[in-house]
Amino acid sequence: MLPSSAQQSITLYTDGGCDPNPGPGGWGVVMVYGAQTRELSGREAHTTNNRMELTAAIRGLKALKRPCTVRVYTDSQYLRRGMTSWVNGWQRNGWRTRTGQPVENQDLWQQLLTLTARHEVTWQWIRGHQGHPFNERADALATAARQQRSSHRERPAPAVGLPECTLYCRGSCQGNPGPGGYAAIVVAPPASPSVVSGGWPNTTNNLMELWAVIAGLRQLQRSTRVTICTASRYVIDGATRYLAEWERSGWRTRQGPVQHVEVWQELARVMGDHDIVWRHISAAVAHREMRSAAQAAREAAQAQPQRKDAG
Asked: CATH number, domain at 47?
């Protein structure tokens, strides 16, 4: 049984790998809570050692349904150093390394950041294959998962994982505050792209940028791997840096209640079980879908009734 109250202590032993590299891979997790343990494992048909190490940590953290104090033991220096030393610099550099190259496995690092923000997490390196029982068990789970092959008695693995979708989200406001509009273009092949839009009679640009994301996520009927494209740093920073902390602190900051708390709570709800990657696209970039979303948001804002001043 997993902890049901906030700030319970839990320990995760994670491991992952593939053979050959890249090639078929597996991951394993041993969750220790008091005298209880739970084991998780899984496989991917074509992956890398590093992706399996990251996936093991992601799956362990995803299994926690309440904020917890978590100690993660891993024999991967890539995972430990990434989370304790490298990831903040990658974020500052727009997910580029010091040499200007794109960070590998950005989608998984972003998932880890979102998940760890909800908990108090410490990362501990443990030398592999040194006889530690839980570490050895996590390794055995990952190896067994990797070596699994579908048979007539097994349920065949799906040809693909989660369905994939991209949301292009924009907001607009005629005055700030003033009449506002939002729009999200939903691109989920093989279906044709669709547009969801609407407006509020008196709002702000930030709220419309935020509501565009919510409106887009509301269109998804099942767990999906989603890339959310937005021009709003307000939305990205709120969702990836602050949202889980606000939830953990009862939706309060040092200055008082979180502004627009009901809207942020709705974002937390609709994010649900989706695997989300956030992508910033500047409003100055000539990006077709983003410009189309911006135009739809402007039209929705212009369709709102204009407020008439008294007198």
From this structure: 3.30.420.10
Domain that holds residue 296: 164-302
C-alpha count within 13 angstroms, C-beta hemisphere, residue 31: 23
| Identified catalytic residue from 44, 75, 275, 289 | 75
Asked whether residue 77 falls in the same domain as residue 131, the answer is yes
For 266, residues 6+ apart whose C-beta sits below 8 A from its C-beta are 214
| pLDDT at residue 3, rounded to an integer | 47
Tens of pLDDT, residue by residue over 117-172, are 989 999 998 887 777 889 899 999 999 999 885 333 333 333 345 688 999 999 99
Looking at 113, 147, 181, the residue that finishes a domain is: 147
Q: Does the pLDDT at position 83 exceed 90?
A: yes
Residue 57 falls within a domain, yes or no? yes
129 is catalytic: yes
Asked if residue 251 belongs to a domain, the reply is yes
Count of beta carbons in the 10 Å neighbourhood of residue 245: 13
Mention every residue, 6+ apart, whose C-beta is less than 8 A from residue 51: 16, 25, 44, 105, 108
Catalytic status, residue 75: yes
Q: Which residue has the higher pLDDT, 71 or 102?
A: 71
Residue 241 has which token pair?
């840096």
Cβ atoms of 108 and 55 within 8 Å: the answer is yes
Mean pLDDT value across the chain:
86
Q: Tell me what the mean pLDDT of segment 180-195 comes to.
A: 94
- 272 catalytic? Reply is no
